[in-house]
């Protein structure tokens, strides 16, 4: 008999990283597997009594799944604090050996900056 395997998203490293923290930030993509993994991490955060916030990477590639992520976050009493659009500048920045913020001012850069502001505010509310 084969050992039972855990689905991606909630293995031992994730469990270890959630225990003892003040906030969980889940970065997901609007795919079936991304939504599934996000839900498993939301369950884990709920189990440990840790609030969770969500960022949707490439949010504009599948609007239906992005909407599903929004609904799921709300169902868990959480919220989406960032919606990063698909942006070819991200790949260009990687090729240049720079972060997206260092590289330019495209839509992904602006979304990451807005997400950081939302995360900073959430962390200030906790501390």
TrEMBL record:
Keywords assigned by UniProt, alphabetized: Cell cycle, Cell division
| Any one of the GO BP annotations | cell division
Gene3D superfamilies registered for this protein in UniProt: P-loop containing nucleotide triphosphate hydrolases
Q: InterPro entries, per this entry?
A: P-loop_NTPase (IPR027417)
The cross-references to PANTHER family, in alphabetical order and at most eight, read: 4FE-4S CLUSTER CONTAINING PARA FAMILY ATPASE PROTEIN, MIND SUPERFAMILY P-LOOP ATPASE CONTAINING AN INSERTED FERREDOXIN DOMAIN
The name under which this protein is listed is Cell division ATPase MinD
Q: Which organism is it from?
A: Kiritimatiella glycovorans
């Amino acid at each position: 008999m084969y050992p039972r395997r855990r689905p991606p998203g909630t293995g031992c490293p994730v469990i270890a990283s959630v225990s003892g923290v003040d906030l969980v930030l889940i970065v997901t993509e609007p795919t079936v597997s991304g939504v599934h993994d996000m839900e498993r991490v939301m369950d884990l955060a709920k189990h440990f009594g840790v609030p969770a916030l969500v960022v949707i990477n490439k949010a504009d590639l599948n609007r239906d799944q992005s909407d599903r992520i929004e609904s799921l976050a709300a169902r868990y009493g959480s919220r989406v604090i960032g919606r990063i659009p698909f942006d070819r500048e991200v790949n260009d920045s990687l090729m240049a050996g720079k972060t997206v913020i260092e590289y330019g001012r495209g839509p992904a850069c602006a979304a990451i900056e807005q997400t950081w502001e939302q995360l900073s505010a959430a962390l200030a509310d906790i501390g």
